[in-house]
Amino acid sequence: RKAKVALEVTDKSFCSTKKLWYFGLKLHALNSHNKDTIPYPESIVISKASESDLAIFKENWSSIESKSFFGDKIYRDEPFFSWLYKEKASVMFTPIRETQGKADCLKNMDRAHKDLFSRAVSTIRQPIESFFNWVNEKTQIQNASKVRSTRGLLVHIFGRLTACFLKPIFNP
């Protein structure tokens, strides 16, 4: 099937967690960590579905100074994040990837350290995933089947996000 609506802001991509192709947008959020509750977004960006998460990060948040970021494995870009640390005093923590082609004895030597570090990063990242689930649960933002134009899609997205964040104010 081919999409017919909002072609200038949407495209096709593969969702590896759900293992399916979809047509649409991606919602990116830079969230602040809140102990014992879901994180609150400091910044939200919408991109075409096929745009790289790392490219979106570089374009929108690479100028932020003195910040600790926690991302998934897609954010592994040593040269860029070394530059970010030196120039902006910001650091990106990601789970550690297994090195391909490494001897088993060498893999096992580092395993405990890598597993603990990756688990710590994932523990901090888990509320971020909960944030996206919370947004979808409260707003059904992923269900845009009645949208018929680019303008309608943008109203759908930002209207639902607004409702999502205003609801706790009026309904504590």
From TrEMBL:
GO molecular function, one term: DNA binding
BP GO annotations: DNA transposition
All residue ranges annotated as the Transposase IS4-like domain in the record: 16-164
Transmembrane stretches, start-end: none
Protein's name in the database: Transposase DDE domain-containing protein
